[in-house]
Write a structure and sequence with these properties.
The complex is a heterotetramer, with 2 copies of chain A (462 residues) and 2 copies of chain B (487 residues). Chain A has 462 residues and is α/β, with parallel strands linked by helices. Chain A has 12 helices and 15 strands. Chain A has a 7-stranded mixed beta sheet, with helices on both faces. Helix content of chain B is 36%, strand content 11%. In chain B, the strands form 3 sheets. Chain B has a 7-stranded mixed beta sheet with strand order 1-7-6-5-4-2-3, with helices on both faces. Chain B has a 4-stranded antiparallel beta sheet with strand order 10-11-13-12, covered by helices on one side. Chain B has a two-stranded antiparallel ribbon with strand order 8-9. The chains are: A alpha/beta (462), B alpha/beta (487). Chains in contact: A-B, A-C, A-D, B-C, B-D, C-D. The structure holds pyridoxal-5'-phosphate (2 copies).
Chain lengths: 462, 487, 462, 487
């Protein structure tokens, strides 16, 4: 009986103690007509060995393509200690630290994570994770409505340069509470939000303005100008950032004069593997004045009966298990283990290491763009400074190109056709510190061949 | 004398670093106007310092791997190590979520089969794996209920009925979806008060959220009656499947007529809790809600798998996460289910229930008071220490803290809210009889300590890394982020 | 500076405290003419990320052939918990438990391992590992000479059916002390040692007889008869066993009437990966009367100042750090981590699981032999019961066949030509519980094709 | 109150098992005469019980990952995690040692390059990686020396000279090779007594085994003189490279004229000690011993790698392990060396020496007695507590045990044998100045405790899982294997 320790003797003794003859009697309060005695549709048990073989074969089937996709999830080197420690049973198999005295390990990690996020974002306080970046943005919108007591409109401006998947998620999660997320257009020449478009909202009751920096295209927004407009017009600022970029870029807490009110995003780049999309780890930070509106767990430092330092969950009155229907969010289980990985990652990288990772991403993406534009006849969609990724314009539909790159073992980027048809055949590409010059060369060579062959087949000159 | 582990920032020295992890410096050419003025304050420590620090911190935790952890409502069962190592095969870890489906057929095959197995164990018509935890599963369910009524033009249905015993996420979710909450009482026997239900039902009823077995540790005996009543009133019925472990393979929510269920894969299917997550709250739906299922869902075209999105499911409530949910968690659950197989899943229900009822019986014989003495326990049960509080002045909290000294994690305390001084105890099927017996012995010993020296118990724990912590101070003198000395 | 924590400030302060100006001064006692200031021949540093990429590429280059080789190292399923726990820092990065109070984890594991080995072999006492099976046999020979006070010849009989590599190692390690290892021929029809060959040693001073069960060919020796002869003729018995087989086979402690004096072998099959040959873990067990002659660490159970049970290294007077030139062996560092893995493995398998592994090995090898003999025109060299592996006879040299199997992703067995030329074109094959029927089918199909194609090329009919 | 962890057999219950790990039963058809009568007594526990048991046991250990571990002569430096994870890539783990070399080119490339790097850092002409630990490396060296003399018909050379400060494995190895041992004294300044050396040299001299820096924590200043004397007498010179960490990249044994060296990869090149192993004692040789190198050695033909064996090296002393040594350990060392690179290796020598000299300086300032006060420390040094033993009656053992209470592993005690009441302290380069300072503070605090209450120190440790253990009883009432009750 996999994972069940009961011997026949145990079962006999336990049934006897309870005073029943067989285990089925324990289910006698369940209406008879509902009970089933088999589970067709579930295959028979395999041994661990058999499942290991199966999974290895499936993994081998998927292979390891050379990855040039970003678009919200980034391939970074993960230092070996990160998961060796994160998967230690004491972290891996513990619950949320409800018994603080028996969970000081997890609680201190939470406190350290919060400290790191607060420092990176230049905000006062951080929580200890939300599900992911997309839901963090949704929670930030809901929180802004709660925090901005004077604003009644629940009207939030969201530039189209914000990750489109995140915009969709934010809409699904906030619509029940009546939020209106209004899209701000971008400049298709620059790939950024032009602060002037805000002018038509001047004087209106806008609860918040979302600013994603770098934006979904990898371009740098004029965050200062946007934030200044918000402050001048009584709107809060919700910052969305790739936290790796914060090693180099002005942090949300310093945007404009006053800084953002809420900063959120996806901390996956901090030691969390791509893993087909999750589990990742959303983060959120805010100003001290708004801390009671923040969703999610928060660990605080305090003292014990003997005056020794210790850590405990705090401000729990914000949470569902205390406040129930009036909680700041329904979130309960969050992404603790990934938060642990991120904390260890940041300890290993430190300010210098993280700055180098960020710098390498900029440099590698530039190198990639150069290689592809000079050698493959594609062109960069936008000028201007960018971080981490870039939009390239092709002379033909992107999907078939990506498919033929995939067949050559290259994950060549993300097709923007669905969300940004106005850009034409636009491809979002990304190179982090993990891509070598040889990798970029491989991509350029393969793309060149792909475009050439397809062109030749179609009788087109590349 | 042994050092309390300092905060990592206190180990930091300017210029130190785990430099094997630093890529070479590169020219970034980011214009000055975008550049950060001061670098962020992050720890500057050596690799050994980081390893030592976090290894030591880990040792301060209680966990399933080190202690019996009978935390009610949380299903702290053994998390098989194979689930972790097989979900972490390099190809799975390295795959970008937006890579073409052609490069993810192995992973998608696992998720597709997981959907099928979850359908089989819940008895539902279809499953979406994307919700990232139980609470997001609840959100998904209520959002689908809302979408259903809207699609039927039934715009007035904006009330969700929730029993008073419900987990906090139920009402919180309803609020998050913009619903009004109608709380209904439980009877003294633990079942829902049907009269209260009748009173609550109205044309405004969007649905009911029901946890079964409930958080009172009992199976709702009149479940079909409830289902019929709500459906008759035009509402839909939501099954909080957080306690599915108790009935796995014995009875299926789909067969009870429910429209939607979320399951906590991190409970029933043993993916790790990780000190607070990640989880997965996969939802199953009946025919009524099928069109509204959140995307993406794994579909199969012939022998190829692919993600279905809004283009395939135009009525879908939409997307709930940046990509497709907590894939790595799903792979762990998949491995677990394949190793258990059909017979193993039935045994989960049976032995978790056996362990709970045995433990309850032994505690009752030892003089503890069951909250629902006339009921069978599900996979968990409640004892109330009301009497002890009255007689010795020791509370559930005192018992809980003292248990830590005995090397056991405490049960859930003060939940559900309607039972005073309660301990909600869930042993799970993976614990041995000896472990349960040891736990009984500890509670009996603590009871004796309470009778002999109640004040001592107030000081517990004594042998943990810290003594009882000052929660009030934590909230009042808020210190939630490290500051450099003098900052 | 990878792995070095010193900041410039640290260095300055430390030098000042020591009273020197630069680190080089610390080397001023080393003759100047010897000092070097660079290390040509050692490449420049890489980051962890770069080395990870390099190693992944090298690993990918080696691939994962379907393995049918045994010959002293066996592919078994390794339960996931084994290495998750074994590589926990507290086991992985600890030293030999010289400070017992701070090493109770390692010491208790040693005690448990010793208990398991003693029980498997049916001997009284075991040590806590030797380097590997081959060196364990060498140590057993040396030990037998010490333990057998009456015998003066240092003459040890070693059947040719004992692993030939181990025989070589035993010879290299024992020859300095003048041991004579004399080879006993085997029956080339049966693949076993015929007890009658011993008759010519009757009356001679033989220190010990080595018996390997199952022998190198996988055949079962008449261990009882061999052990009985040894006892009757005043020779000690050194048992060499694959410990997996001990789940099913008569243990050395019960061979003949009196049982073996020393049992040794390779515990690699217990949770230790093949890993191109090591690190593995030799084991050795003996009777209580010989314990003071045994090499290697031994943990013993004792009590502390308060009477509590605890564990400590014991009988250290046998060891080099106490007895120096008169120690039972020079061994110091041993194979502790692999011993830990083996102990966890055995805890997970238990008697029932281990019997199933052993049974599956027998059944799978039988299935393999059947498939290859009936379908590929090869024949089994020996009748009689066998365990784990089998010798097959081909109609042509083995090496080219193995090479062409390797090109098809199959590690097809071990060529016996070097050590057993008398058998002709003999191939040693093995199938453990990890080989499925489909794997065996793949092998049979590929071998059939290989032999057929080669035959066709050579104009030979298969 | 917290439970001492029982022996795994005491958790065992007949019929229990971690059955996910059990393959299906198969028909074996082994004839009865070969069959075991009673099954072996092995633990019968669930997977969770095994995981919990060994996780808990691990927590009882001190280790580099959790504590400063200044064990002299053992080089307890940080074992980078990358070395472990990269050596454990599935392809490396899964490769059978006898699989064709064509399927091991990646692995062989690593080992070939490792040989080259070891040649470069030792200054030797060739390297064999097969010895499985330092002691086997020593064996290899002495066996080669023996083979050399034999090959020259010099059969009378059967004495090995060993300084009295030598590690126990040196004389043990010489004996194992059938050599006689001539021990020679060290001078009060830590160097070898050259007069004693002269007296020991004779036509029977096979060679000398010299550890440098010696286990006294000092560099042998007259190393070339020794080398010349021994060579002049017809002997060969063996370099015990266990302390190579101290001089890495600063000076090379090959340049000192040595014929053979073993290096402890599990010290200098940071492969883990694993609670007692595995190690690797790769040997390097000069031209004289090159023909005798043990097999196998990785060779390169064009761009293919292969193992060279006796057919390639007909004078080889032969094979020392069942296959090719501890490959997994070698891969770890390879990763380590690639991450360090040439400059990093030089830093190892520099900073391990800096740390040792700083620590020595601080301890001397704090009033402790250096055994060799007029010498530089190598990467380790000795303090002697002779005075404390005389004045307070507390021994090196008492200091060591008390250090455990302060959260530090103890230094090596009572070795080398010639310094009374000694602590051999090796901090390694991977420890911070703060850690060293903390260690000084602890020793100072213990010294004060010794002065105030010597008896208390005799009872140490107080805060470990057990108090001081009875070693005498362990040896007298031998209990080295669990027996079922009543057996
Ligand atoms: C009954 C019940 N419902 C819902 C939840 C919420 O699940 P999650 O924590 O995964 O969001 C829980 C979790 O504790 C629960 O016990
Ligand atoms: C100086 C010296 N030589 C030799 C050895 C033996 O090495 P090993 O333990 O690897 O056999 C050691 C190990 O402690 C040592 O310190």
């Amino acid at each position: 009986m996999p994972y069940i320790p009961h011997t026949d003797e145990d079962i006999g003794a336990m049934l006897e103690r309870i005073g029943i003859r067989d285990i089925d009697e324990l289910f006698d309060e369940i209406p008879k007509e509902l009970r089933i005695d088999s589970l067709p549709g579930v295959p028979a048990a395999l041994t661990e060995m058999e499942v290991a073989r199966l999974m290895s074969e499936r993994a081998a089937q998927d292979g390891r393509p050379l990855n040039f996709i970003g678009a919200g999830a980034y391939e970074h080197h993960i230092p070996a200690p990160v998961w060796a420690i994160t998967t230690r049973g004491e972290f891996y198999s513990a619950y949320t630290p409800y018994q603080a005295e028996a969970s000081q390990g997890t609680l201190q990690v939470m406190y350290e994570f919060q400290s790191m996020i607060a420092s990176l974002t230049a905000m006062d306080v951080s929580n200890a994770s939300l599900y992911d970046g997309a839901s963090a943005l949704a929670e930030a919108c809901l929180m802004a409505v709660r925090a901005h007591r004077r604003s009644k409109s629940a009207h939030i401006l969201v530039p189209v340069t914000v990750n489109p998947a995140w915009r969709r998620v934010a809409r699904v999660i906030t619509e029940g509470q009546g939020l209106v997320l209004e899209e701000l257009p971008y400049c298709t020449e620059q790939g950024t939000t032009i602060p002037q478009v805000l002018e038509r909202y001047a004087g209106q009751d806008i609860t918040a303005l979302v600013i994603q920096q770098p934006n979904f295209f990898g371009q740098l927004e004029d965050a200062d100008a946007l934030a200044r407009w918000a402050r001048a017009n009584g709107a809060q600022v919700i910052a969305v950032t790739n936290p790796v970029s914060l090693a180099l870029l002005t942090p949300p807490g310093e945007w404009g004069e006053g800084g953002a009110d809420i900063a959120c995003g996806e901390a996956q780049p901090f030691g969390v593997p791509l893993s087909s999309g999750g589990p990742y780890v959303g983060f959120m930070a805010t100003r001290l004045e708004h801390v009671r509106q923040m969703p999610g767990r928060i660990a605080g430092r305090t003292v014990d009966l003997e005056g020794r330092t210790g850590f405990t969950l705090t401000l729990q009155a914000r949470e569902q298990h205390i406040r129930r229907g009036k909680a700041t969010s329904n979130i309960c289980t969050n992404q603790g283990l990934l938060m642990t990985a991120a904390t260890i990652y940041l300890s290993l990288l430190g300010p210098a290491g993280l700055a180098r990772v960020a710098g390498a991403c900029v440099a590698r993406t530039r190198e990639l763009v150069e290689a592809l534009t000079t050698r493959c006849g594609v062109r960069a969609a936008f000028p201007g400074p960018r971080f981490h990724e870039a939009v390239l314009l092709l002379d033909r539909p992107v999907v078939p190109v990506l498919e033929s790159l995939a067949a050559a073992g290259i994950a060549g980027g993300y097709d923007l056709a669905r969300d940004f048809p106005e850009l034409g055949h636009a491809l979002l590409v990304c190179a982090t510190e993990t891509r070598t010059s040889a990798d970029i060369e491989t991509y350029a060579r393969t793309l060149h061949r792909t475009l050439g062959r397809a062109a030749a087949a179609a009788g087109v000159r590349p | 004398m042994k050092r309390i582990e300092p905060v990592i920032f206190d180990l930091s020295r300017s210029g130190r670093g785990a430099t094997a992890q630093h890529p070479p410096a590169a020219e970034t050419a980011i214009p000055a106007q975008f550049r950060r003025r001061r670098p962020p304050v992050l720890p500057e420590v050596s690799e050994l310092q980081a390893v030592r620090h976090y290894t030591r911190l880990s040792q301060l935790n209680y966990s399933i791997d080190t202690q019996f952890y009978p935390l009610g409502s949380c299903t702290m069962k053994y998390n098989p190590r194979a689930c972790n190592s097989l979900a972490m095969l390099p190809e799975f870890l390295g795959r970008h979520p937006l890579a073409p489906a052609a490069t993810g057929q192995g992973m998608l095959a696992c998720l597709f089969e997981l959907q099928e197995m979850l359908k089989a164990v819940t008895g539902m018509a279809a499953v979406s794996l994307t919700p990232m935890a139980g609470a997001q599963g609840e959100f998904t369910g209520v959002a689908m209920i809302r979408a259903f009524h809207r699609a039927h033009g039934d715009l007035a249905r904006n009330e969700i009925i929730v029993p008073d015993a419900a987990h906090g996420t139920n009402p919180a979710t309803a609020s998050m979806c913009g619903m009004k909450i109608r709380e209904i009482a439980s009877l003294a026997n633990g079942d829902v008060d049907l009269a209260a239900l009748d009173a609550a039902l109205s044309p405004a009823t969007a649905g009911i959220m029901l946890t079964n077995p409930s958080t009172l540790g009992v199976f709702e005996r009149r479940i079909t009656e409830i289902e019929r009543k709500v459906h008759a009133a035009g509402g839909l019925v939501y099954y909080d499947g957080a306690n599915l472990n108790a009935i796995l393979g014995k009875v299926r929510p789909g067969d009870m007529g429910f429209d939607v269920i979320h399951t906590n894969l991190h409970k029933t299917f043993s993916t790790p809790h990780g000190g607070g997550g990640p989880g997965s709250g996969a939802v199953g739906v009946g025919e009524r809600l099928l069109p509204f299922l959140p995307v993406p869902v794994v579909g199969r075209d012939g022998d190829r798998y692919r993600w279905l999105d809004e283009r395939d499911l135009p009525q879908s409530i939409g997307q709930l996460s940046g990509f497709m949910g907590n894939t790595g968690v799903l792979l762990r659950a998949y491995v677990y289910m394949r190793i258990l197989g059909a017979a193993g899943m039935r045994r989960v229900g049976e032995f978790s229930t056996l362990n709970a009822n045995y433990l309850l019986q032994r505690l009752r014989e030892a003089g503890f008071d069951a909250a629902y003495p006339e009921r069978r326990a599900s996979h968990e049960f409640i004892i109330t220490l009301r009497r002890q509080t009255r007689e010795q002045g020791v509370t559930a909290m005192d018992f809980a803290k003292r248990l830590l000294d005995y090397g056991y994690h405490a049960p859930t305390t003060y939940f559900p809210l309607l039972v005073p001084e309660c301990l909600l105890i869930e042993p799970t099927e993976t614990e041995t009889r000896e472990e349960l017996d040891g736990f009984v012995d500890a509670l009996v010993a603590i009871q004796r300590e309470a009778e002999a020296d109640a004040a001592m118990l107030k000081g517990a724990p004594y042998t943990l890394p810290v003594r009882r912590l000052d929660d009030v101070r934590a909230a009042k003198q808020l210190d939630v982020a490290w500051k450099p000395a003098g900052a």
